[in-house]
Write a structure and sequence with these properties.
By secondary structure, the chain is α/β, with parallel strands linked by helices. It is built from 19 helices and 32 strands.
Length: about 650
């Protein structure tokens, strides 16, 4: 039996297809109007927050609100239908959301009006009127470029994207180094306040100033605040002993006082065999030049140390008498001869002390400031007494709960909380889920990440506040590390107001899960005080969210920043192998080419960093001819033709 369906007459087929298109157009047009209303609703509810934004950035903030509202809906089906109807799919609408939505709505209603649909003309007129007040794509592009120049300086001569380089030690970052970097293509110099002191920072900036005069090249300075790094405490090894003695002449007179370094708890010994003492962060931060530490050594002799110099990382003390200390000692700080506060001083741990960690082990994480210790194992290698490690600062564990993850050493050791202490100050029992080696070594001063835990430690530490005095006087912008909430941004703004630098640029470093999840709120707060930029700190962020999610999250950060017309800085290990060894890997060249989506790319230090700058500059110059943000640019190709060559 012949089952071939009857052929539909051509007029009937055309009529059927027209009806389908009409129905699809009507559905799309209605959905676009509903979306526009949702954008207006969120804008209205956010009116108070928008009114607090700096007037010049208010339209950018409004566009951010529109973008967040748009992305609260799954638009994939709508985008497919728009493409089938020959309309734009809204896939590149970040920088001017309302204009993009109104433009496609206008075209949909134009088509319906031509097809004779009642009511389409009324909606068409409304869309046309509203488009007149919406930000155009060209205006949005100009705003992003202007905001980038406000933060990073004049546009580079041969490309749109800036290159930032992290300064090495002052000995290396001299005038000749700066000249070489400027000529290679460096546009911004980054100084990490977690290292060195004001003296060294000043040397670096002076060298840059001389190089700028010599080359006639502009280069901005951005200084990174260290932030509240959560890390492991000291690890016990052999018995820790510290001793020092001054130099004396043949008559017993002191000719050179003994020098002692005091660092934060968990820090490693300085080079050169200099005696090193450790103190809790708050106690170390409270020390001032001229203070005196008084204590009794292990022989019961009364001794003292006078604070000679204070830097963000350490204090230098001097002594006129020999002393012997073992493990730790109770001391008092005296200022201007008056006794002030009691402190505990610990002897610095040897760098080699470590805890062996394997999958399945139990690890006790404590809020105690006592040194950690390795596990005690039986003859079969099973843990008889778990290893113990301290968390510095202890307050970071205040909200740690059962089943939450704790990551050590940049994620090389992954654990999960199996039990929490019954009383404050006790130990959390962790089970080791993953290690990067069969047996990993956990040492002092290694980073701790708490990706599932509410952390209430302020992003602006006491060390950061001290560093800000120098930053406010010498830098063009300051980076806020480990930013999580708008309160962190407000705290920085208040401190800058106090220092008289409310106009300094602020870079928000997104390196935690909380920072990413709160990014729209952080941007809105930051736009109250431009210039503003965002750094995608991909290393720390990958540890927090998982490397498998990094690509997705960095794209979302780029989109949100484009929506708010805020420049982004693409950071962490860009051309890192090239900078360190002089030879790039294939993967990092591809990674560098993807950085064209940002406004600035950051390189870390290394002996071949000037070569890395030159290579990156060439990559960016080439790639920006093919890509701008999410758009592919169809420049003329010099290959891929069928002509014989």
């Amino acid at each position: 039996m012949n089952c071939v369906p009857p052929v539909m007459p051509s007029k009937q087929l055309v009529s059927s297809r027209r009806a389908e298109q009409d129905a699809s157009l009507v559905g799309v047009a209605r959905e676009l109007v509903r979306l526009k209303d949702k954008l207006r609703e969120l804008e209205s509810s956010m009116r108070s927050a928008l009114d607090q934004v700096f007037p010049d950035r208010r339209e950018s903030a409004k566009n951010l609100v529109h973008y967040v509202a748009l992305r609260q809906h799954d638009l994939r089906d709508l985008q497919v239908r728009l493409a089938q109807l020959g309309l734009t799919s809204l896939g590149r609408s970040e920088s001017c959301v309302m204009d993009s939505l109104l433009a496609v709505s206008q075209r949909a209603h134009e088509s319906l009006a031509l097809r004779g649909h009642r009511g389409a003309a009324r909606q068409l007129g409304r869309a046309e009127r509203e488009r007149g007040s919406a930000m155009s794509p060209e205006t949005a592009k100009q705003r992003l470029h202007q905001h980038t120049r406000d933060m990073l300086g004049s546009r580079p001569a041969d490309r749109h994207i800036y290159i930032m380089v992290t300064a090495p030690t002052p000995r290396e970052a001299d005038r000749a180094w700066m000249v070489k970097m400027l000529r290679a293509g460096m546009n911004v110099l980054r100084i990490n306040c977690a290292h060195d002191s004001e003296h060294e920072w000043g040397q670096i900036i002076d060298a840059l100033r001389e190089a700028r005069r010599e080359t006639g090249t502009e280069c901005r300075v951005i200084m990174d605040l260290a932030g509240p790094k959560i890390r492991t405490g000291p690890i016990a090894g052999a018995r820790r002993i510290a001793t020092w003695k001054p130099s004396k002449d043949e008559l017993g007179n002191v000719t050179t006082e003994a020098r002692v370094v005091i660092r934060r708890l968990g820090a490693l010994l300085p080079e050169g065999g200099v005696p090193c003492l450790l103190m809790h962060d708050e106690d170390l931060a409270a020390l001032r030049k001229g203070d005196e530490l008084r204590f009794s050594d292990v022989r019961g002799k009364k001794r003292s140390l006078r604070i000679h110099a204070v830097t963000p990382e350490e204090s230098i003390a001097t002594a006129r008498q020999r002393a012997y200390l073992v493990d730790h000692v109770a001391a008092h700080v005296h200022r201007a001869g008056r006794r002030r506060v009691p402190v505990t001083v610990t002897i610095g741990a040897e760098p080699g002390a470590a805890i062996d960690v394997t999958v399945g082990d139990t690890l006790l994480l404590t809020q105690s400031l006592q040194p950690g210790k390795p596990a005690r194992r039986d003859r079969q290698g099973r843990v008889a007494s778990p290893a113990v490690v301290a968390c510095v600062p202890p307050a970071a564990l205040e909200h740690l709960a059962k089943a939450q993850r704790v990551l050590f050493d940049d994620g090389r050791i992954c654990t999960i909380v199996e039990s929490v202490p019954r009383k404050a100050g006790g130990a959390f029992s962790l089970r080791v889920l993953r290690t990067h080696k069969a047996t990993s070594k956990l040492r002092a001063e290694k980073g701790i990440n708490l990706p599932d835990t509410l952390t209430t430690i302020p992003s602006l530490s006491d060390e950061d506040r001290r560093a800000l005095r120098f930053v406010a006087e010498h830098a063009d912008a300051v980076s806020l590390s480990f930013v999580r909430t708008p309160d962190d941004v407000r705290a920085l703004h208040r401190e800058l107001d106090r220092l008289g630098r409310s106009n300094i640029g602020v870079v928000l470093k997104i390196e935690t899960r909380a920072g990413f999840e709160n990014l729209p709120r952080l941007l809105l707060e930051g736009l109250r005080r431009p210039p503003l930029a965002v750094m995608i700190a991909r290393g720390d962020l990958a540890v927090e969210v998982g490397f498998e999610r990094l690509a997705e999250l960095q794209e979302e950060i780029l989109w949100l920043c484009e929506a708010s017309h805020v420049p982004t800085i693409w950071a962490t290990q860009v051309l890192d192998t090239l900078a360190r060894t002089g030879v790039p890997s294939r993967a990092e060249v591809t990674d560098a080419s993807a950085s064209v989506a940002a406004e600035c790319v950051m390189l870390n230090k290394g002996p071949f960093v000037h070569e890395a700058v030159a290579v990156l500059s060439d990559i960016l110059r080439r790639m920006e001819k093919h890509h701008y943000k999410k758009r592919s640019l169809f420049r003329k190709l010099h290959v891929s033709t069928f002509a014989k060559r």
